[in-house]
Amino acid sequence: MNRPERSSVEFSVNGRPYEVEGGDVFLTASEFLRERTRRTGTKIACEEGDCGSCTVLVGRPTDQGTSYLPMNSCIRFVFQLDGCDMVTVEALASDGRLTSVQEAMVECHGSQCGFCTPGFVMAMTATCHQRATSPEESPPVDWPLELSGNLCRCTGYLPILEAARRCESSDGEISKWSRVTETTRRRFDLLGNTPFDASGTHRGAARRVLSPVTLEEALRIRADLPEAQLIAGATDLGVQWTKARKAAAVWIDLGRVPELRGITVCEAEPDRSGDEPADGGAARVIEAGAMATWAELLDRSRTDLPEFASILERFGGPQIRNYGTIGGNIVNASSIADSLPLLSVMDASLELASSEGRRRVDVNRFFTANRRTMIQADELLASVRIPLPSPLQRLRLYKVSRRHDLDIATVSAAFCLTFEAGRITRAAIALGGVGPTVRRLEGVERWLIDRPCREETFEAAGRLAADEISPWSDVRGTAEYRRQVVGGLLTRYFHEVSSDMGAGE
Ligand SMILES: Cc1cc2nc3c(=O)[nH]c(=O)nc-3n(C[C@H](O)[C@H](O)[C@H](O)COP(=O)(O)OP(=O)(O)OC[C@H]3O[C@@H](n4cnc5c(N)ncnc54)[C@H](O)[C@@H]3O)c2cc1C
Ligand code: FES
Ligand code: FES
Fold first, then answer.
1. In the chain, which end has fewer C-beta atoms inside a 10 angstrom radius, N or C?
2. CA–CA separation, 266 and 251 (whole Å)
3. Quick one: CATH architecture of 392-505?
4. From CA 295, how far away is CA 327, in angstroms rounded?
């Protein structure tokens, strides 16, 4: 395998260019800021993407300008910043003058110990900046949603939300803090098309990361290095590193492969011959590249799959949604991954690619055991096709968690039933958090066929479902609690869809 010439990564911090090589490319961005550049305004508290204290803004400078997104710097690695400008809290105030966001925090007493404050300020600045640069007219800001990736342990949220509302009309004052020069921008443009292969010793271990810029190259590297691990947004792998010091010796970074990005809504494909799954008889499907982020999917779902949008608004916080990908969520294969119940009931299909070709598999056959999938060592997940519900189908998704925001599910569920003349003609029921993998309840599905849409039907289905699952007890809930939740959700589904369909239907 030819090694690309580039073995270093380049990015800027508050406009100042850095070139990093060797073991330092495996530092987290927050370690780099604090330990290598002494910019200690970015705080590290949880080091697992939960509290937002480490929030910085990151953007890729282009001819059209730079759109900066908030990011948790504690779980993203230096090599993932290649070609980007990172902005820290130190860049905001200039010539002794605070930005309007900072001023609002002072005026509203939005800070006590101050540990969370830089993170909140950066998250608010990002929202103001995105609103000001969005081509569409923005609705009023939903600040609790925008700040759901930030925790404060002592001030309380009311003064912080008051500050956010007070600075809402500001544009985030990008002109004060974006300092990328034309030379740096041109240099970063060039880097976008150049792969790198960086290696070094990090915390006593030999590490290497290869960053291809085409799918063909990614597949070739995957075939040559089957022991290497793919890395996408690093919202799972970053936490494995910071909390358990687990990391593969070789990573293949998919962050710059354009063919893995993008989301389209298209006509469904006709049934195919052979074993390959079709689009389940749907008229339209969402096709998402494996590297589509949750922020992009949330945006798309608001118009095309609103049931999913309401789950995605609770997926991590904005900092997680900006980088976490659908591909990472699927291949990580957690039983409580938020995307999986939906994919399961809609009979989504996954496209797996290798240098030998492509194959499409049914998501319901993909998971073989807890955290295990059928993906082969030379394959990667390229895209996902999600059939959209037909007018006769009623889809509902549920996430039951101990906290509303920024929490993972205790139990998750997707129910998609087809109703014709008041009777159930097709049923798909998938549950997460009640077994080693997300699973369909085939016994209950069969039992529901041809039953009337009545409360007793769903109460009985809930009892059958509780018998069909074997949940465990853990800190999130006992097995008995999980059984009761499943029964409750089926009854809730009945009430929601029957009021939605109207009494006559
Ligand atoms: C604070 C926090 C909150 C979270 N909240 C939620 C939540 O509400 N709901 C939820 O479901 N999850 C949540 N997560 C988990 C995580 O954000 C998601 O699972 C996310 O979608 C993972 O995507 P990623 O791109 O970051 O994956 P990565 O961490 O980069 O990778 C995860 C796994 O997928 C593999 N992989 C990635 N892409 C591919 C590919 N294209 N082909 C083959 N293998 C691939 C990697 O090798 C790795 O094994 C949260 C995580 C954090 C830190
Ligand atoms: S330190 Fe808590 S999210 Fe990074
Ligand atoms: S001000 Fe102390 S944690 Fe928020």
1. N
2. 33
3. 2-Layer Sandwich (3.30)
4. 14
Q: Is 72 in the pocket of ligand 2 (CB under 6 A)?
A: yes
d(CA 159, CA 155): 8
Ligand 3 pocket test: pick from 155, 157, 161 the residue with the most ligand atoms within 8 Å of its Cβ: 155
Q: Which atom of ligand 2 is nearest to the CA of 319?
A: 3
Nearest CA to ligand 1 atom 18: 329
Among the bound ligands, name the one nearest to the CA of residue 154. 3
Give how far Cα 236 sits from Cα of 4, 114, 324, 334, Å: 28, 28, 8, 11
Mean pLDDT for back-to-back runs of 10 residues, the chain (505 residues): 81 96 98 98 97 97 88 98 96 93 97 97 96 79 96 94 95 87 91 93 97 98 97 98 97 97 90 64 92 97 96 96 98 96 97 97 95 96 97 96 88 97 96 94 98 96 95 92 96 92 57
Q: What is the CATH number of domain 261-388?
A: 3.30.465.10
- CATH topology for 8-89+180-253? Ubiquitin-like (UB roll) (3.10.20)
- Does the C-beta of 57 come closer than 6 Å to ligand 2? no
Q: Whose CA is nearest to atom 2 of ligand 3?
A: 113
Q: Is 52 in the pocket of ligand 2 (CB under 6 A)?
A: yes
- 311 CB within 6 A, ligand 1: no
The predicted pLDDT at position 175 comes to 83
Instruction: Return the biggest CA–CA distance within the chain.
Output: 73
Task: Looking at the CA of 80, name the nearest ligand.
Answer: 1
118 alpha carbon – ligand 3 mean position (Å): 10
Looking from the CA of residue 331, the nearest atom of ligand 1 is: 34
pLDDT of 272 = 63
Cα distance between residue 325 and residue 29, in whole Å: 19
The answer to whether the CB of 253 is under 6 A from ligand 2 is no
- The span from the first CA to the last CA of the chain, in angstroms, equals 63
Tokens of 365: 């056959």
Q: CATH assignment of 93-172?
A: 1.10.150.120
State whether the beta carbon of 50 lies less than 6 angstroms from ligand 1: yes
CA dihedral sign, ordered 467, 470, 476, 478: positive
* In the chain, domain spans: 8-89+180-253, 93-172, 261-388, 392-505
Say what the pLDDT of residue 356 is. Answer: 97
Could you give the CA distance from residue 105 to residue 121 in angstroms, rounded to a whole number? Answer: 8
CB contact set of 153 (below 8 Å; sequence gap of 6+): 113, 115, 116
Ligand 3: which of 115, 120, 157, 160 to mutate, most ligand atoms within 8 Å of CB?
Answer: 115
Which protein residue's CA is at the shortest distance from atom 8 of ligand 1? 315
Predicted confidence at residue 504, as pLDDT, reads 47
Ligand 2 centroid, distance to 116 Cα (angstroms): 9
